[in-house]
Design a protein that fits this description.
By secondary structure, the chain is α/β, with parallel strands linked by helices. It contains 22 helices and 28 strands. Helix 9 packs across helix 15.
Length: 676
């Protein structure tokens, strides 16, 4: 049995403490119809929400499966120790003031250490945690009101914010929610372990995460692997930026990859959908619960308004959603059903000629659902139920149900805004196996994400987990390039020299040459780079004008098609993140990059390069020569080999000069890693 099963699916509950939050736990369990025993513990009170309290934890008749601890932080440790000793199933620690408050409370770190020692192997949620809601079994270790109802199956939500979790329970979108769990400061039991335990429940269909920071990279990878094995999708709303993401003083890579780029790369690698808002999170989970992952983002859209058809087309711009054109067979059926005055297209405005005609609407909806359509969308905004009636809308819903049954393809009912999808209608549709969606932007984002989850992935979900380390030495350009060259990166012929020896050592090179001042991070900005120097005189003059006395002189690389940045940064939350970007002085200006987690294979690098806007230049733009893509991939794989062997803190090549025959690193920077 999973170690969290007793806690999340308890047969008995105890509430320790006498505050209003403890009363709410009991009241909410009673309200949801919890069928097991409920015990209260308080040394002096005679009644807590209708339950006569026991005087101490030791008076409990048997070890409880789940306990809500609502006492102060010091007393919490004593209660946890007693519960662990008696063999309780687990506890929610409501109190704050532990490690999450170490900056404000000098003893916060010590108290958390004591809490972990007291708990031993007994699962503990929190501290600083609201607890959880189990809508399958009617369990509410939850010290507040909530908006959910009992369900037979549904999605699970794991949240790193208790307040966000409360808000999610208040949704009126028809999403069946099986569990809501909050994690507090994750002293012992983290988001990943909780998510894995909830997904294992056969009545849970998908998992939604609100993530401020990944608790443990190895555990998170294990969660994703378990979800894939179960065939249950995960969707995440990832917010926040790590301290590492702001360390961009030396390189561009850290600022490009950062926490957000690293999160994108990791979630994509693990097959976890990423959304941009809470509304999109709810809509995506609802789509996954009712329909499951989509095999594409090709949809058919129908409405009885040209305005709604235009809104759908415009809202889809910039997303993965597309509207395949109608074929002749579809047009024949639609023309017969709609008459000569309707322009036939996708999105389709079928006008109001057939409004109220259930048979004609069924024929129209079904005709749009050809084989390559992943999802049909009927845009339908309902009148307010408190002021209006909607018999004709019921006919439209009947037509949707009939068309879905006739075609065997999923059809959703989409309201333009949340307010025009009554909760009762949404719940009724879910009960019939019809997907209700609320709001065009979040619905189309949900379709894009669900389509990504439905794609076959050939990538290995394994992630290279960096060792614990701090930033070490910053190698200069010459040393950095030499280190990478040892693993197969091509670099120009070069020499290091002081000013007095510069002309002599440069005689081994072929002019024109490039001169760089050493010991300067951003050489171009500091005027420490001179290119195309034709002879010794020009070389010496350029050196004298630079703000340094140490130099690197190297041969110029001709026939450059494009400049790229290739970098790898150690992101403690997301692994080693590989960044490919437009390089040179335009890196920050173009903001053209892709991020992937290490390790990658050649096909993944090729696919990543194709996503860059500069890809058209690499492929040969307007008759210009194309870059040697295989040579670029060779360079990227060589950088990866260095990272996997040497475990640095950060590596950057900028630029990698890419030509028809070559990919040569003309500038590089390495920060080594010092083990902690």
């Amino acid at each position: 049995m999973d170690r969290l099963q007793r806690l999340f699916q308890p047969q008995s509950i105890a509430v320790v403490g006498g505050g209003a939050w403890c009363e709410q736990v009991i009241l909410q369990c009673q309200k949801m119809g919890f069928a097991g025993a409920i015990h209260a513990v308080h040394p002096t009170k005679d009644d807590i929400a209708g339950v006569a309290p026991l005087r101490s934890v030791g008076d409990l008749p048997a070890p409880p499966d789940a306990v809500f601890i609502g006492v102060n932080r010091h007393a919490t440790i004593d209660v946890v120790a007693q519960l662990a000793q008696m063999g309780a199933g687990g506890a929610v620690c409501f109190a704050s003031g532990f490690r999450e408050a170490a900056h404000e409370m000098a003893d916060g770190d010590d108290l958390q250490t004591a809490l972990l020692a007291a708990a031993g192997d007994m699962p503990v949620l929190g501290p600083n945690c609201y607890g959880f809601l189990n809508y399958l079994d009617g369990v509410a270790l939850w010290p507040d009101q909530h908006g959910g109802d009992r369900v037979d199956s549904g999605v699970a939500l794991v949240m790193q914010s208790s307040n966000v979790a409360i808000n999610m329970t208040m949704q009126k979108r028809g999403l069946p929610v099986a569990f809501v769990a909050t994690v507090g400061n994750q002293a012992q039991t983290g988001l990943s372990e909780i998510g894995k335990a909830l997904l294992a429940n056969p009545k849970v269909t998908a998992l939604g995460l609100y993530v401020e920071g990944i608790d443990d990279l190895a555990a998170f990878v294990d969660l994703a692997t378990a979800a894939q094995a179960l065939g249950k999708p995960i969707v995440a709303l990832k917010v926040g930026r790590s301290e590492q993401a702001q360390q961009a003083a030396v390189s561009h890579t850290a600022s490009i990859a950062g926490s957000d780029g690293g999160a994108d790369a990791l979630l994509a690698r693990l097959g976890i959908g990423r959304v941009t808002s809470l509304s999109a999170l709810l809509e995506t989970l609802k789509l996954l619960h009712v329909v499951g992952p989509l095999r594409s983002a090709r949809i058919a859209s129908l409405s009885c308004s040209g305005g709604e058809a235009s809104l759908m087309a415009d809202t889809a711009l910039g997303t993965e959603v597309s509207f395949p054109p109608l074929n002749p067979a579809q047009k024949d059926v639609l023309r017969a059903a709609l008459g000569p005055l309707v322009a036939l297209s996708n999105p389709l405005d079928y006008h109001t000629f057939i409004w109220g005609d259930e048979d004609a609407m069924t024929t129209t909806y079904a005709a749009m659902m050809r084989d390559d359509i992943a999802l049909g969308i009927v845009v339908l905004d309902f009148p307010r139920p408190d002021k209006c009636t909607s018999p004709d809308w019921d006919l439209a819903l009947n037509a949707v149900c009939r068309a879905q049954a006739r075609t065997g393809r999923p059809i959703a009912v989409l309201s333009s805004v949340v307010e025009t999808m009554p909760e009762a209608v949404a719940q009724r549709l879910v009960g019939k196996g019809i997907l209700p969606m609320c709001g065009m932007p979040e619905a189309l984002e949900a379709i894009s994400v669900a389509a990504g989850l439905g794609e076959e992935s050939g990538s290995d979900p394994a992630v290279l987990i960096p060792p614990e380390m701090t930033a070490g030495r910053v190698l200069n350009e010459a040393a950095s390039k030499a280190a990478l060259a040892a693993y197969g990166v091509f670099i120009p012929q070069s020499r290091q020299a002081a000013l007095k020896d510069l002309a002599t050592v440069a005689r081994d090179l072929t002019y024109p040459v490039v001169l760089k001042g050493e010991g300067i991070a951003h050489k171009t900005d500091a005027g420490a780079v001179a290119v195309g120097l034709p002879d010794e005189a020009a070389l010496v003059d350029a050196a004298r004008a630079m703000p340094t006395t140490r130099f690197l002189v190297e041969e110029m690389i001709a026939d450059t098609v494009a400049e790229l940045l290739v970098g790898v940064v150690r992101d403690p939350a997301h692994g080693y993140v590989l960044t490919l970007a437009a390089g040179g002085i335009l890196t920050e200006l173009l903001v053209d990059s892709v991020n992937m987690t290490v390790p990658v294979d050649r096909d993944q690098v090729r696919a990543g390069l194709s996503k860059l806007r500069v890809a058209r230049v690499l492929q040969g733009y307007r008759g210009r020569p194309a870059a040697n893509i295989d040579a670029i991939i060779d360079a990227v794989m060589a950088v990866q080999s260095y990272v996997m062997a040497e475990a640095p803190f950060e590596v950057e090549i900028n630029p990698l000069l890419c030509g028809p025959t070559h990919a040569i690193a003309v500038d590089a920077l390495i920060t080594t890693g010092d083990p902690q």
